[in-house]
Each structure stands twice: as structure tokens, then as C-alpha cells.
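Shipment paperwork, digital attachment
Item: protein structure file
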Amino acid sequence: MKTTGENYSGESEITMEDVQNLVKKKDEIEEQIKAYYDVLEDQGVGVEEPLIDEEGYPRSDVNLYQIRTARHSISCLQNDHKAIMVEIEEALHKLHAREKAKREQDETEAQGEAMEQQVTLPPPFARVDAVTQGSPACGAGLRVGDEVIEFGSVNTGNFQNLQNIASVVQHSEGKPLRVTVIRDGQKAQMSLTPQRWSGRGLLGCNIVPIHR
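Attachment content:
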């Protein structure tokens, strides 16, 4: 019986379906081996017993052709079984190795992206320490803990004090401002429109400077 070594020993990518097909072939081989052992059992002989009588003549109480055929087939099938077990082991090893390499690559890429973002993000100049429910700031998506790197025309490079932000807010009532923050290490952008609401001020949040 010819095994499938040439299909799985090359550089082609091993899939779980390939492994399942090999296992199916293994099961088929085991069924055939069992069937031939059943033939020997029916004849009352094993794999090694002599087929000649005490006087050296071929035994007449058994079907010699059936027994020889079964023994030869068992020997060939057992070799096939060993070979396919090696193929299954190698296929599983390649499959697991590829999955591990992909997982490590994904982790490396994720770390690289995180490091790249940390390097390119400017340092924040202010932090949001309170956001009132139902306020313009709340509606825009600002959250407590957000670190501000851009508030309208105010950014890390030109920020001096909170009066800068207050001035931008006063001159932008009813106009959307682009606000950029760092949240959980990631950059997040939102549109915040200063406007009258049921609470104090035009934003409904409290921003404190970050001293460096």
C-alpha cells in the first residue's frame, strides 16, 4: 500500500484537514489489519505458527493460501501504519509550530504598533478629572482620566495655562472643536461643541494642567 508521504512532507502548508485525512487513513489501515487477524483467527493460527505438520508436509487442516495472504497483508499494513503514524506526528508538529510562529508574530506586531504609537504621541498638557452627565463634554465622549494633547488651537507646543483653553472655549460657543486625548495608551479624537446647557459653563467638565 502506498502512503501519502509525498503529499505532506514538502513545504506546502499543513492544515488541520490534512491531519484529519491522515488520521482517517490510519483508522482504515487498522480496520484492514483487524480484518486479516480475524481471518487468521478463523483458521485457528497466528502470525508466526508453522504451516507444515510434524512430518514436514503442508498442513491440510487449514487454508494455506488464505493464511499466507493474510500474514503478508498484515506485514505490509503494519509498515504502512508505522509510516502514517510518523506522517501524523510530523504534520501535527508543523501545524503547532506554524500556529506558535503566527502567535509570536502577532504579539510582536502588536507590541511594535503600541511602541510606535507611544513614540509618536506628544506628551499631554492637561487631564480631565470630572465630566458631568448630560453635559456637552459627556455628549462628545470625554471621559475622566483622558489626557489632552489637543484642544482646538491649543496643543502641547503652545499650551501655557488653563486660560488658553478657557479663551478657545469662549470664542467657540456653538462651534465644534477638535479635541484629541490619550486614553489607555491610545489616541482618541472627538468633536466637542461648547454650548449652554442646564449646568455651569459651556463644557460640563473639569480640566487640570499636567505639570512636568
